[in-house]
Amino acid sequence: MIAVDQAVDVKDLFMVAWQLLANSDPLRDHVWITGSSLLIDGTIKYLRKSGFTRDWPNVVCSDSETIKAIDEKWNDLGFDRFIPSPSLRYLPLVRKGTAGIE
Prior knowledge:
The protein is built from four helices and three strands; from the N terminus they run βααββαα. The chain is α+β, with helices and mostly antiparallel strands. Strands 1-3-2 form a three-stranded mixed sheet. A hairpin with a 2-residue loop joins β2 (30-34) and β3 (37-41). The protein is elongated, with a radius of gyration of 17 Å. The two termini are 28 Å apart.
């Protein structure tokens, strides 16, 4: 069984894998529930009551204003076809704060 944050699109297996692999430590976040059932916690750790001792990094992506500015300039940049910003996929995962989650 795996746990990821609510903002993760569970139908997007690449996003689930990215969230799970980026946010789990086998020693801390893998727990055997029964002899054949393993829970892997791939959630961000700032909510842990156990006192996680360092800042948890925020998701890095372009903000909405930057995405809009590039989209408006796209045709003038000489590319063959429009490519939507990859950041759009990850904006829902950005938490309050800057480099670290508050």
